[in-house]
Amino acid sequence: MGYENKNFIMDMDGVIYFGNSLIDGAKEFIDKLKNNDNKYLFLTNNSSQTPLDLSKKLSYLGVEVPPKNIFTSAVATASFLNRQKKGGSAYVIGSSGLYNALHDVGYHITEFNPDYVVIGETRSYSYEVIEKACKFIMEGARFIGTNPDLTGPTDFGIVPAVGALTAPIELATGVKPYYVGKPNPLMMRSALRRLNSHSENTVMIGDRMDTDIVAGLETGLETILVLTGVTKKEDIRKYPYQPSRICNSIKDIYDLL
C-alpha cells in the first residue's frame, strides 16, 4: 500500500536524525514529501529548543524545513496553559525552548507564588530547583511536565528526559504531574489541526512504542515504527499494541510514497 495521498506527522530525534547526525534517507524522504505536495509536521516531545532552533539544526544537517512545520511539546504546553489560565505565572525548570514558548503566550516566569510548576528538558538540574519546585507544589501550584519520556537519544547514548526529572518531585510531594506531550491525545489533536488534516488521512512515524506509536493509535492514525531510535526490534513484543508497519529506517518508507 502506498502513501501518495497521505499526510505525515513525524517525530524528529530517532527518525530524522540521531543526536547531531542525519539518518540515511531522511533528506530524500522530506524532499519527496515536498515534491508530492504531502502535508507534513514534525512533532517532538523535546522541549529544549524552539521551532526556529530546530529548523536551523535541520538546515545545518542538510534538510530545509520551516519553523511552522515543527511543533514541540514546549509550544503545546504553553498553548495548554494559556487556555487553562490566560496570563498566568510559572516556575520553570527547563531550557530556552520552554521559556520562549511560555513568554510568547504572555506567561510570567517567577519564583513568587506561581500558578504552575513546569518542567522540561534541562541540563541545569539541581537539588535547589527540586526543593523550590516541591515548595511551590505543596503551596498549591499545579504540576506540569512537557512530556513523560524517561529517556532520550543523544550522540552520547541514552540520557534522562523529563519523566526522570519529574520523578523526585512527584515522590517528595505525592503529586503526579500532568504531561502535555505525546502520548497525550491533546498534542496529537493539536498537530492534526495544524495540518488541517483528519486522522484517517494521516500517518504517524516514530521511533518509540511508548509515545509515538501509542499516541498515533489512540488518535486513530496509521502508525509506522522505525528502528533508528529508542525502541529496538526485540522490544516490540513487550507491548500489547502493535504499529501498522515496522521499518528499519525512514529510508524504507521512501519507496512507499
What does this structure look like?
The chain has 257 residues and is α/β, with parallel strands linked by helices. The protein has 2 domains: 7-45 and 182-254, HAD superfamily/HAD-like (Rossmann fold, 3-Layer(aba) Sandwich), CATH 3.40.50; 83-179, HAD superfamily/HAD-like (Rossmann fold, 3-Layer(aba) Sandwich), CATH 3.40.50. The chain is built from 9 helices and 15 strands. It is globular, with a radius of gyration of 18 Å. The mean pLDDT is 94.
Structural topology:
Elements: E1 7-10, E2 17-18, E3 21-22, H1 26-36, E4 40-44, H2 51-61, E5 70-72, H3 73-84, E6 89-93, H4 96-104, E7 108-109, E8 116-119, H5 127-138, E9 142-145, E10 151-154, E11 157-160, H6 162-173, E12 178-179, H7 185-195, E13 202-206, H8 209-218, E14 222-226, E15 245-247, H9 250-254
Parallel strand pairs: 1-4, 1-13, 4-5, 6-7, 6-8, 8-9, 9-12, 13-14, 14-15
Antiparallel strand pairs: 2-3, 10-11
